[in-house]
Amino acid sequence: MLNDIYNKRIIELAGNIPRLGRLSDPDATATAHSKLCGSTVKVDLKMNGDTVTDFAHDVKACALGQASSSIMASHVVGSTASELRELRETVRKMLKEDGAPPEGKWEEIKFLEPVRDYKARHASTLLTFDAVVDAIGQIEAKAKQPAAAQG
């Protein structure tokens, strides 16, 4: 039932999103958009080496996109690039392949597990994860460029 995916915890998460706004000097900005529902998440990311040091986001999404963005914002600072790539893959598998939800600091993602039965909602749920991984890729690509090319 659709009410299963909009459970009490999802509504609480969606209504209390931390780190809203934009960073003044991000290392990268990435936007993820769902054509199906029109939801958009734009993230600003700062990293020191492999670790996220600051994060902000602009979330124009349904309750599911808001809830997943809320979880991301609560735990992203201090996370590593490899951890965040693995997280995106874990959430994708949870939704699309009946995989288990993540554990540890990301365990609240389990509240999004009922979304697996609603394919049309997968894209909005994954937006924040896709945007963060995109931003990490941008930062890593810049780091590999010769200093003269970085301007």
From TrEMBL:
<dbReference type="Pfam" id="PF01592">
    <property type="entry name" value="NifU_N"/>
</dbReference>
<dbReference type="GO" id="GO:0016226">
    <property type="term" value="P:iron-sulfur cluster assembly"/>
</dbReference>
<dbReference type="GO" id="GO:0051536">
    <property type="term" value="F:iron-sulfur cluster binding"/>
</dbReference>
<protein>
    <submittedName>
        <fullName>Iron-sulfur cluster assembly scaffold protein</fullName>
    </submittedName>
</protein>
<dbReference type="InterPro" id="IPR002871">
    <property type="entry name" value="NIF_FeS_clus_asmbl_NifU_N"/>
</dbReference>
<dbReference type="GO" id="GO:0005506">
    <property type="term" value="F:iron ion binding"/>
</dbReference>
<feature type="domain" description="NIF system FeS cluster assembly NifU N-terminal">
    <location>
        <begin position="6"/>
        <end position="96"/>
    </location>
</feature>
